[in-house]
Amino acid sequence: MKNNRISRIMQLLTAMQSRRGHAISELTEMLGKSRRTVYRDLKELEKAGLPCRFDTRQHCYVFDLQSPLPTFALSKDEAFSLLLLLREASHNIRLPFTYPARLLSLKIENCLRREVRQYCDASFRFISISPAPKARMDLLDKIFAQVLAAIQAQRTLNINYCLPAEQNTITTDFNPYYLVYSEYTWHAIGKSSFHKAVQTFRLNQIKQLNPLDRYFVEDEKFDLREYFGYAWSLLREGQIYEVELRFCPRIAAEVAEVQWHETQTASFEDDGSVVLKFRVDGLNEITWWILGYGDQVEVLAPTALRQRIAQIASRIVDSQQG
């Protein structure tokens, strides 16, 4: 729904950039929307700082040439990299406030010098960004804003949190420290009264959130990097493993060119395969990453990981045959 709205406003903006007036009836016909919807979209352009106004003499909407947009003195490369970053982020990260961010992108584009804007427009015709997997979260904007406000004010939250694996829900008082994006979704990290320890909560599993009239003192000893430690992604399990994996020649170069973990080392074999070594805390997270490569990877160490992968693979075979 939001993407349709953004596309519609971009179409409206393009029409208004023609510098000639457009009657409301013309805009409703062009967009195929009601007058009410078009009026709302025109207000969005105004809120974004774009000089759109109703000319009472001509009885149409125009860009107000008496209130020109400021021009950003960005080079072609600076403007292109900024706009590409905005587009890349919106495709590959589940950002809160996506709609205002896209309006900001439009505003930046329209504040560029003509030749810079033309260069960016021409360049983006030949670029396509495939969206990365993202967890669905219909209430992201609201929950993200509430957690962020609590972090800044050091205010305790009471949250109702769903645990899908246990098919259970818990209620806890939560002192949020950080917001972190990982594994396709946003997480809040902070002290939980239920766990009596620092805990990680996925925002899309928070079912209810209420700010309390209670505040907490910042834990100056808490270090986010130390908290993550050698976890594969987010969750430490309290035991360090030396993991060795051999990837077949078919995908060796592709896998080795990515830095999957800070402890990663790679060594290519004579047959074209590559052995990646990691030092990780816990096996749960890395297990599911390994399974994604199917028969193209072999677990060399540790034995516990090798057995775990074999057991899961066996259950997969059994379920397909059943």
Tell me what you see in this structure.
The radius of gyration is 26 Å and the shape is globular. With 322 residues, the chain is α+β, with helices and mostly antiparallel strands. It is built from 11 helices and 11 strands.
Characteristic terms for this protein:
322 residues; alpha+beta; Arc Repressor Mutant, subunit A; SH3 type barrels; 4 domains; five-stranded antiparallel beta sheet; 25% strand
In short:
The chain folds into four domains: 62 residues, Arc Repressor Mutant, subunit A (Orthogonal Bundle); 49 residues; 88 residues, SH3 type barrels (Roll); 82 residues, 2-Layer Sandwich (Alpha-Beta Plaits).
Q: In the residues, how many domains can be counted?
A: 4
Number of strands: 11
Tell me the strand order in the biggest sheet: 6-5-4-3-7
Q: Distance N terminus to C terminus?
A: 41 Å
Structural class, from secondary structure content?
A: alpha+beta
* Helix-strand pattern: HHHEEHHHHEEEEEHEHEEHEH
CATH A-level architecture of the largest domain:
Roll
Multimerization state: single chain
Mean pLDDT: 85
List low-pLDDT spans.
none
Number of alpha- plus pi-helical segments: 11
Q: What is the secondary structure topology, with strand pairs?
A:
Layout (H helix, E strand, L loop, with lengths): L1 H15 L7 H8 L3 H13 L4 E4 L4 E4 L12 H17 L5 H13 L3 H11 L15 H14 L1 E9 L4 E15 L2 E8 L4 E6 L3 E10 L8 H5 L11 E8 L1 H8 L8 E4 L5 E8 L2 H8 L5 E5 L1 H19 L1
